[in-house]
Predict the 3D structure of the following.
Amino acid sequence: MTSAIIAGLGLAAAGFAGRYVLKQMPTLSQKMAEAVKSMPKLDSQSLANSKYYKGGFEQKMTRREASLVLGVSPTAPKSKVKEQFKKVITANHPDRGGSPYLAAKINEAKDLLEK
């Protein structure tokens, strides 16, 4: 008998909660629409000013591309290249969920800049 009462109360609570959610849906969707409208637009100018490199890889890696991959100057000393290489490869190593292709490119960049 007690379990039937508890089940009935639970069912009633679920019904009231569902009714409340359905009544709030129009205001929630309106607030969501307003939030989307107030978001800043991403145009080509803001993407061009981004600190991340937006291009793909070239056929043969250049010093410029290698410096972009590691985040150092093309004329950076070997110690700075090695230090930055450790940071970048740690974040992108395949054993930690990174891409083997990116790891190969990072290694290629380090080799090119250490020459």
Q: What stands out?
A: The chain has a mean pLDDT of 84. Residues 2-38 form the longest helix (37 residues).
